Fold this sequence. Notes:
This protein is α+β, with helices and mostly antiparallel strands. It has 2 helices and 4 strands; from the N terminus they run βαββαβ. 24% of the residues lie in helices and 29% in strands. The mean pLDDT is 88.
Amino acid sequence: KVIAFFTTWFDRRKLGYEYYKVLFWFQFATKEDEEKLIRYCEQHPNAVFINRVLGTWDLEIDFDAKNAKEIHQFVKDLKNRFFGIIRDHTTLTILRDGITNPFRSQV
């Protein structure tokens, strides 16, 4: 047998972290501007998932933080560094997260 896929899943709360998702809307952002912002976020140890999206918002960042103050500081820092391209943002607190099993049999 071959292991085709595996991932780790941990309980953030047991490690002292809360899970947040930050949604960003851009204005006047070039592809280069977006790439710079994404590269900057990739360097942050608490940014766990970064996703460009099509639809209502432009970018979503999943972030593990010790508390609301820490996520607020992260967003404030991004808005200061990239003030010309971030039009707005929304921060969501994820109270319960789970994983979908991609190998679950169809019911």
